[in-house]
Every structure is written in C-alpha cells, then in structure tokens.
Amino acid sequence: CTANSSSGEPPVDKSLGGLLSSAFDEASCRSRFEAARLWKPSNRTPSPYLLQKLRSYEALHKKCGPNTELYNKSTEQLLSNRIMGPMECNYVVWMPSDGLGNRMISIASAFLYALLNDKVLLLFLSEDMKGLFCEPFPDTTWALPSDFPIKNIRWIWSFDKDPNRFGSMMKKKLLSNRMSIANGSFSLPPYLYLHLIHDNDDYDKMFYCEEAQLLLQHFPWILLRSNQYFVPSLFLVPKFEEELRLLFNERTAVFHLLGRYLFHPSNSVWGYITRYYEAYLANAKERLGMQIRIFGDVDFNSHSSYIIGCALTRKLLPGLDTKGSALPNITGAKPKAVLVTSLSNGYFERLRDMYYEHATVTGEVIGVYQPSHEERQHTEKLNHNMKALAEIYLLSFSDSLVTSPFSTFGYVAQGLGGTRPWMLVKHDKDNLCLQSLTMEPCFHFPPSFECKSRRKMNLGSVVPYLRHCEDFPRGIKLF
Ligand code: GDP
After folding, report:
1. 173 vs 478, higher pLDDT
2. 165 versus 175: which is more confidently predicted?
C-alpha cells in the first residue's frame, strides 16, 4: 500500500513493510496510516517470518479476545479458583507501573513474551491511559474488560504481597512442588503474578530462566507488572533462541519493529502531534530532537552548557558567530528546527535566546520549539500522558536526537524513529556525549545470576549480542 507516488516524492509504504495489518479502516486511527510519512524511511524491514507470526497472533487474539466464548471459558476457570493446566486460550495480563515510557517498553516486552508462548496479551488500562492508543489488533480489543474476575487488579500495589506471586512461590519452593503434584493430576493456582519491576528480587527474576518459562506454560492466566524492557533476557532462554532468530533478522531492531506495530496514537493524540508538526516542524530543512529529562538535582547552568556543548561539538547545531554581526540573507532558506522536550522550560529558553541573540557561523537560521513544560510528572492524569505521547512521537520524527541517560521516554522516541541518539553520559565524573551503538532500549535491571548454578554472573559478557548499556552500565541491551 503506497502513497505520494503522484506528487513526485518517493512512495511511502504505509504498511511499514507489511508490519501493519490491512484490516483496519483509516478514519478510526489516522496515525496508523499517516505516521510513516513523517518518519525517516526505515531500512529495517520485518522478516517474512515476523509478518506471518503477527498475522497468526492477530487471528489468535480475535479468537480468544474479550467477549468471545473462549475468553469466557478461561475466565470461568479463574473463578473456579483451581485450574488443571493450559486451556485453548491462555493470557498475559499486563499491569502498569511508572511513566509512559516505562509502560510502553514493558508492553512491548510483554507482547513478545505472549508471542513466543502463544498467549494473548491484554492490558489493564487505568483511567490515565484510556484513549491514548488505538487498538493494534483488528476486530478485537487488547483492553482487559472491566468485569475481569480478579477484582483487586484495580489495587495494583496489593499484588506485591499476592500469594500467587511467582517469586514468593519460588522462594517457598511451592511452585516446583505444586508442579510435580500437578503432573500427578492435582490442580494449580488459578493464576501467577509476575513482579517484573526494577525492585524485584532474584526469585522474581527466575522468570528469565528456561526452567520457569517451561513451568509458566501450564498457567492459562499470567498477570505481569513491569516497568522494564526485559526483551534482552528472552534472548538468553535457549527455548526461544531459534524462534527469535527467525523473527528478528536484526536484533537491534526489535523495539523499532514491535513499537511501530503496537503503538498508534489515538485520533485525539494524533491531533496534538499533527497540529504541532505542521505549525512548527514541517517547514524545516532538518529537525533535531533534544530530550531533556532530569533525575535528581542538577545545576542548571552547567547542565545546560553540557547539553548545548554536546550538540555543538557533534555538529548537530551550528556554532555562534560571536565576533561579527552577520545578518542572514533573506533568501527564504528553510530554518533548521530544534524540538526540545522537557518538564521545565529553562533549557528551551536558553537555546532559543542563544539563536535569537546571535547569528550562526554557517548562516543558518535555527528555530527552537518546545510543545509543553508540565513542570512535574503527573502520570495519573490522562491529558498529561497525551502530551507525553505526542512529544515522544514528535521526537521520533527528528533526523537526529540528543537524549538523556536512563530515560525510557527517550528510548521510545529513538526506537520509534529508528535513530541512534547522542546520549549525555557521565563516566568517571566526565560529561560525555556519545552516540549510542543501537536504537534499542536498555534493560535497566536484568538478573545478575546464571540460571542453572544460581551463581553471580555478568550478563553483559555471556553472549556477543548482549552488552552493558552506554547510559546505565548495570543494564544490558541487544547489539
Ligand atoms: P523516564 O522516567 O524518563 O524513564 O520516562 P517515563 O515516560 O516512564 O516517565 C516520565 C514521565 O514524566 C513521562 O511519561 C511524562 O509523563 C513526564 N515527562 C518527562 N519528560 C517529559 C517531557 O519532555 N514532556 C512531557 N510532556 N512529559 C514529560
């Protein structure tokens, strides 16, 4: 499916190489059809095997999704409080934690886990997320119905102490015992809860071991709460090795492809995005995205000098002509646009003033823009999250990106955009400005033990395709 071929511009492949199903109508979700026109063309094509897998997943989701007989049958099992093993339809229910970036990287991870296990992914969408995204799978929904029988799903924190928490059951050796009993035809708990948050312990982290993966196949209901991009660990499970190789011919494009497949801003968010893009960015000859996320206290003057210095030394922005007072020629040349995203507006103001008060050595004119400055994170508010999603998307349309270390907000933008960002990384107290080797997100808190022996192990050095993250050395990412 192509567009633009009559305007003389190269045709845009709206289906993203067949990634997106053709079974959707355009009006219900404009971003699905229009985003491809605003992204830089991607050279990461999905493998035929991934396309086939997605189409069969869509069929499975339609067959087992909410409001189907098979869904009702599986939820009846939950109510009966005991199950005897896997059913025809088996589910992963994702539960949110933290900000939107964290949520999006963990949804993508949960989706890959579901895909690898022929399970159906459902999302518990809290009020602050309702209406953010379009449905990704045709003729069904990924939203968990409000009459889902496990009522305390609304009190997400209560799951920390849930008796069916996988990690606590492993710790008490309940699970392996129960499994052997189960094989002797006794029943299993109705669901398992996976606590895959940054603060989980080694018992919870046993989820990433093959032994646990085999065990989890017996459960029709897996509840999963995560704020992590745990995809890299799935690559270490021998059982998934061959499948993952077939699905992703390039390991460094996993989030790029899954993110573009799953996350389509709803029409109302797409309105924010396109209005802003058309008003401020569309006319630029080039776009630089600068994502500034501050964790803890920093000195504004030195931090803003560091960020601007990064863009200048890497030639992402032209230097200032401080000696002369060169005037730009009024030739109608297009400006270069800088899109700043940040909770505060100080960084934007400093950059805007800099290019207002001075000419550039190249004679270029620089437009500096910032869509919002919300001051504080308010993940509990839908409108705040709509702006966050809009800005993540706007950043993803940039030709180059400067991002902040440890920020999942930046990871999603770089992944959707298919861009290797320049990162503001501190190393031995030095402020560095490094270009990331990949566009993949970092798994911040992976397990640190070897599955069989349970001995401490550095996962960044076990296989050539996993390395420590540039911006957070404790984490790992795919290479
Ligand atoms: P992380 O904390 O940087 O890993 O990213 P998250 O997206 O998980 O959480 C940060 C949240 O703070 C975002 O989801 C937004 O709600 C808010 N936020 C942070 N930076 C920005 C920004 O530049 N623009 C907007 N609109 N919101 C932001």
Report:
1. 478
2. 165
State the distance from the centre of ligand 1 to the C-alpha of 388, rounded, in angstroms.
6
Three-state secondary structure readout of 418-446: CCCCEEEEEECCEEEEEECCCCCCCECCC
Name the percent of the chain lying above pLDDT 90.
Answer: 84
The Å distance, Cα 291 to ligand 1 centre, comes to 10
DSSP assigned state of 307? H
Per-residue model confidence (pLDDT) at position 42: 87
Whole-angstrom Cα distance, residue 85 to residue 58?
Answer: 24
Distance CA 424, CA 419 (A): 15
Non-local CB neighbours of 300 within 8 Å, separated by 6+ positions: 346
- The number of the ligand 1 atom at minimal distance from the alpha carbon of 292 is 23
Residue 3 has pLDDT above 60, yes or no: no
Ligand 1 centre to CA of 148 (Å) is: 30
pLDDT of residue 179: 56
CA distance 286 to 400: 9
Is a pLDDT exceeding 80 seen at residue 9? no
Q: What angle do CA 206, 211, 214 make, to 5 degrees?
A: 115
Residue nearest to atom 19 of ligand 1 (CA): 343
Question: Hey, what are 297's tokens?
Answer: 């206290």
With CA atoms as reference, report the closest residue to 389 among 303, 271, 280: 271
435 φ, ψ to 5°? -85, 130
d(CA 335, CA 338): 10
Nearest to 106 by CA among 392, 444, 401, 450: 444
ipTM of the complex: 0.99
Q: Kindly list the protein residues whose Cβ atom lies closer than 6 A to any atom of ligand 1.
A: 98-102, 293, 341-343, 372, 374, 377, 379, 384-385, 387-388, 391, 407-409
Query: Which ligand 1 atom sits nearest the alpha carbon of residue 98?
Result: 8
Mean pLDDT within 124-128: 96
Contact 78, 192 (CB under 8 A): no
Measured between alpha carbons, how far is 130 from 32 in angstroms, rounded to an integer? Answer: 18
